[in-house]
Design a protein that fits this description.
Layout (H helix, E strand, L loop, with lengths): L2 E5 L8 E5 L4 E6 L13 E2 L3 H14 L17 H10 L8 E2 H12 L6 H10 L11 E2 L12 H10 L4
Parallel strand pairs: 1-4, 5-6
Antiparallel strand pairs: 1-2, 2-3
Helix pairs in contact: 2-4, 3-4
């Protein structure tokens, strides 16, 4: 049984929705965004320990602190490629960005390939079910250009501005 929770964000951001399998955070997305179609948005609204932990993380983040812990999460449906992309996104420091092409180059080098598709990386980044905590908003297009963001481009701009990068 899935549980859901709503997190009230500061002005300038859409509110966030969280879902859980009862033990782990399984989704975090902006309310009303295209990302909502990827998530189970039905279930019992129930305050769970993992929701409290995630809300505490978000509280730190939205006051401008880089949280020194990560809420317990579980990602279902991971392919090895998506896992690689997520592991790279998790290393992007607060306030920094990386391009899809740079991620593709890291994976190509690791695999001993001459190149990797930045578009394939974009698909894996866009698939990410746990925004902000897995910082897909820090991934940019070529030359630092803004590209689509499942949480809405206004939220991406606000997140980057919050981190003083846009």
């Amino acid at each position: 049984m899935f549980s859901i929770w709503k997190y009230k964000t500061p002005d300038g951001f859409s509110d966030l929705l969280l879902n859980s399998d009862g033990e782990y955070l399984t989704g975090l997305w902006f309310e009303g965004s295209a990302d909502g179609s990827k998530h189970t948005s039905f279930g019992e609204e129930k305050e769970l320990p993992v929701f409290r932990e995630t809300c505490q993380w978000l509280d730190f983040y939205f006051v401008g602190k880089n949280p020194d812990f990560t809420p317990r999460y579980k990602i279902n449906g991971l392919t090895p490629f998506r896992q690689e992309v997520i592991e790279i996104m998790k290393t992007i420091p607060y306030g920094e960005t990386i391009t899809y092409g740079e991620i593709a180059a890291i994976i190509a080098k690791k695999r001993g390939l001459t190149r990797m598709s930045a578009q394939a990386v974009g698909g894996a980044v866009g698939w990410n079910p746990i925004c902000i905590i897995i910082p897909c908003h820090r991934v940019m297009g070529a030359n630092g250009s803004l590209t689509g963001y499942g949480g809405g481009i206004a939220n991406k701009i606000a997140l980057l501005a919050h981190e003083r990068k846009y």
